Amino acid sequence: MREAKWGLAALALVIGAGAGLGSIAFRWLIRTFTGLFSGHADYAGAGGSANPHVPWLGPYFVLLAPVIGGLLYGPLVDRFAKEARGHGVPEVMLAVAQRGGRINPNVSVVKALASALTIGSGGSVGREGPIVQIGSALGSTLGRITKVTEGRMKLLVACGAAGGIAATFNAPLAGVFFAMELILRSFTVEAFGAVVLSSVAASIIGRAAFGDVAFLTLPAFHVDHVAQYGLFALLGIVAGGVGIGFTRILYWIEDACDWAWRGPEWLRPAVGGLLLGVVLLVLPEMYGVGYPVLENAAEGKYAAAFLLLLLVGKILATSLTIGIGGSGGVFAPSLFMGAMLGAVYGAGMQSLLPGTTGAVGAYALVGMGAVFAGASRAPITAVVILFELTGEYSIILPLMLAIVTATAVSRLLSRDTVYTLKLRRRGIDLDGPAPGAPLGSQRVDEVMEAAPGALAVDAPLSAMALELSRSAHGVLPVADKNGRYVGTITARSVAEALADEPGSAGCGALAGDLVQRPASLTADLPLAAALHALISHPGTGLPVLDSERSHLVGWLTHQSALRALHPVTGPAPMCAPVPAG
């Protein structure tokens, strides 16, 4: 099973089935704890009612619910799996990028219990982060049991993430693209096939338990006027800014909680739960995930001022829940914020352009995807997951427009996303070397080789063929008359040109006609960053340019990078013979 071609498919199906069953158990836990702590199936839509278990407390029970929940999940996380704290997805991304897909097997159980307790006791977080971490931990555990290679281990982790999303939200396509775009951060045929199998298996189990219905119930929306596309694009710009703003506030409040708390970590959620209880007393709509409130906003049931209050309240409540040590995701909160933003935006535009704007709910739906895209910078996932969560295809074009716009704004405003910023604050760069790795601290100019002689831009085919036949690289740089770097010429391109003009080896194409511009590096670039370009380049190295990217100063090859990792200072030591007996 470790090496056979069918082995990966079999493991993906098993992981998908496990993630599907895990999602059923996880949703049952959330429903059970919500009923115990609040007395309602979803207290966010109950309008600040009393808990029927303790009616004498009235609505003030929300002051105690987060405290009691914190007393239960705080010691659990602190004792058995500290990585279960927070929103979970960054830990899975780190495991795939730098830890060979290895995840603590305790995470599945601890994350499920801690997140269910957090959400059930009023924590204003979502369940996609926990189910991703739960499914990924299942995949990693199965990979360890079967002793698969590191590459397959990473795929199994992604399969678990895809299965969890697919089963929990009845969104098989969204599960696939979430795993590919955010967890693996690459697309290959093998990975796509395995992730799809896991997602399908999990979806079948999820639909058997929850039914084949869209996760959110929203009315049908249509674009009735071409001018609305401009309004949706503008909403994307605003949503991108809100997504980045949420990310900054989330970690600012987490920093504030870190600064203020001086006691044991296991007690922090309970003490911080008092602050969260105050927020819930003022805005009971912040209790738990809040999907009923989201649907009401999309149906236009709230006034604009109250929508703004809900938007600000969700940012505060989610940030506080994470900051005090709660366990839960940020995907659902970003959908909530997007719905509030889109609804108030649509209401405002209706008052300004009453004959052009269209339904307020359309802007709420588009805002959901745009804010998530602005925070996560995962546009493909945002488009697919909003389509599957709502089953609403009529809004797909404005949805795509707003999501791409929000992603572009997010990229302009911030280097990091809501997921990667958590890691960067701990000094971890997903694109850099793993902590403690011997490779990556050097600069490119410390390990590069001398650049091969450059061809003139007007060199004929015969000269190119002669120089390339003598070169050890199979590729040569090309420079103009002033010595400025123009690009490269490969032996393959020259051979193809000669084949096209067999009778004119000395004439025909010039170097400038065949020049290519591959990815180039600069001398001051860290070697860890340069390796990503080098590994993806099929040739025999990459040109290294000066800081102005105008002149060639060296050449980085796979061999020179390897020498930086394992410098050879003499002959390899001989292994001592093993004594007989």
What topology does this entry show?
Blueprint: H1 5-38, H2 65-80, H3 89-98, H4 107-120, H5 128-146, H6 150-169, H7 172-184, H8 189-210, H9 228-260, H10 268-282, H11 291-298, H12 304-323, H13 331-352, H14 360-376, H15 379-390, H16 396-413, H17 420-424, H18 444-447, E1 455-456, H19 461-470, E2 475-479, E3 485-490, H20 491-500, H21 511-514, E4 521-522, H22 527-536, E5 542-545, E6 552-556, H23 558-565
Parallel strand pairs: 1-2, 4-5
Antiparallel strand pairs: 2-3, 5-6
Give a verbal description of the structure.
By secondary structure, the chain is mainly α. The chain contains 23 helices and 6 strands. The chain has a 3-stranded mixed sheet. A 3-stranded mixed sheet has the order 4-5-6. Helix 19 links the parallel strand 1 and strand 2. Helix 2 packs antiparallel against helix 10. The longest helix is centred in the first third of the chain and has 34 residues. The protein is globular, with a radius of gyration of 28 Å.
Question: How would you concisely characterize the structure shown here?
Answer:
The protein has 581 residues and is mainly alpha-helical. It has helices at residues 5-38, 65-80, 89-98, 107-120, 128-146, 150-169, 172-184, 189-210, 228-260, 268-282, 291-298, 304-323, 331-352, 360-376, 379-390, 396-413, 420-424, 444-447, 461-470, 491-500, 511-514, 527-536, 558-565; strands spanning 455-456, 475-479, 485-490, 521-522, 542-545, 552-556.
